Amino acid sequence: MKRTCLACHKPLVGSQRKWCSNACTQRAAFNKKAGRPLDARTWIPGTICNWCQGEISNRGPQARYCSNRCRLDAGHHAQLVRRHRDQQSAGLPIPGQLIVCRHPKCQVSFIKKHSQLYCSKECAVDANWRYRSPNGFGDRCAVYFKPCHDCNTFITRKARGGMVLCEPCRKVRLRAVDARRNHKRRAVGAATMNIKELAARDGERCHICSRKIDLSLSGMAKWGPTIDHILPVSLGGTNDPNNLTLAHRCCNTRRGNREPAQMLLSA
């Protein structure tokens, strides 16, 4: 014989003995306490949920919401209403109102969301306005600019640190640096010996790494042969044959203008 729930008369499954759910257990206990039949449903209030306006079922007589989700949403909404009321009483804007960005140079109108006071994240991140262009703000949000150190034109990208230079000024400075580096070389003049003569005198080995140099490679190749000054020209070295030797291009570049003693200490 099929067993059914004593409260709702639905078939019982598994280990269920009298009731099919906790709601039926509560309904039966309430009806028994009130002296009514266990399957009576008159005790369920025919009220409407205060949040979703749906009918409340399978809950106690004092229930105001049809589910826990509605109860949580209603509590959150009530908290927001209280917060907005406090903000209005303090003279502050509330979400949904049209306000002006708090950035002193942006002044863009936008619809406020939550606790938002700026039209964009860029306007709210940094509070230092000294390096921003007075005309560098668009219609939607503030755009961050920094002035070039040489020409004072504002750069549209963020600097990674150090001196801020625009691309033309950076190239000018690099050319000036190269000119200063090469001035002493041009003053000293051309080398008195070529690569083949140095290889015949000292052997086909790099004086820095002591590896063999392939003379068939170009001087612009990584492991190609180059003429290196034992005492760098920038430190007073000359093109005297005793100051010239062979080195790989990569070794010569890595050495820079360090003296032999400094090069041995850093090895």
User: How many helical stretches?
Assistant: 7
Distance between the termini: 94 Å
Query: How is the largest sheet built, in terms of strand order?
Result: 1-2
CATH topology of the domain at 191-266: DNA Binding (I), subunit A
Helical content class: 25-40%
- Residue-averaged pLDDT, rounded? 77
Characterise the protein shown here.
The structure is a single chain. This protein is mostly helical and 267 residues long. Among the domains are: 145-188, no CATH class; 191-266, DNA Binding (I), subunit A. Helix content is 31%, strand content 7%. The protein is built from seven helices and six strands. The chain has helices at residues 22-34, 68-89, 121-125, 167-188, 195-202, 249-255, 260-266, and strands at residues 98-100, 109-111, 146-147, 154-155, 225-229, 244-248. The protein has a two-stranded antiparallel ribbon. Strands 3-4 form a two-stranded antiparallel sheet. A two-stranded antiparallel sheet has the order 5-6. A hairpin with a 6-residue loop joins strand 3 and strand 4. The radius of gyration is 42 Å and the shape is elongated. The model is unreliable at 127-143 (pLDDT under 50).
Topology:
Elements: H1 22-34, H2 68-89, E1 98-100, E2 109-111, H3 121-125, E3 146-147, E4 154-155, H4 167-188, H5 195-202, E5 225-229, E6 244-248, H6 249-255, H7 260-266
Antiparallel strand pairs: 1-2, 3-4, 5-6
Observed structural traits:
DNA Binding (I), subunit A, 267 residues, two-stranded antiparallel sheet, mainly alpha
